[in-house]
Design goal:
119 residues, alpha+beta, Endonuclease, Chain A, 4-stranded mixed beta sheet
Length: 119
């Protein structure tokens, strides 16, 4: 059993309340098993990180990347974080804010295909 960690729960609640417009738009399509019957949660704590969206049963993380993922330091930080999450058995799917705003249907199709890859 995971055990109670109220500080992590509270931090996740704060992050959910302060989501970006791209995250809110994507969440509207992921919630309530709307994408292929898959259950996603928002701002899930994993190790020392909080991931934007998580499908626990498929161990797939969805990260929405905005303007704060473009410098060399930010890219290196994202890569180190992704490596740690992969070592824990998770697969990462990244989608940009632009994709969420400009072509959400294609982003959702790509995510569903990624989940079904099982690899």
């Amino acid at each position: 059993m995971r055990g109670a960690r109220p500080w992590r729960t509270n931090r996740a609640r704060v992050l959910r309340a302060d989501d970006t417009s791209a995250e809110a738009r994507l969440w509207n399509e992921l919630r309530d098993r709307r994408l292929g019957g898959l259950k996603f949660v928002r701002q899930a704590p994993i190790a020392d990180h909080y991931v934007d969206f998580l499908c626990r049963e498929q161990k797939v993380i969805v990260e929405v990347d905005g303007g704060t993922h473009s410098t060399d330091a930010e890219i290196a930080n994202d890569a180190a974080r992704a490596d740690q999450l992969r070592q824990l058995g998770y697969r990462l799917f990244r989608v940009s804010n632009a994709d969420v705003y400009d072509d959400l249907d294609s982003a959702l199709d790509a995510l569903l295909a990624y989940v079904k890859e099982k690899g």
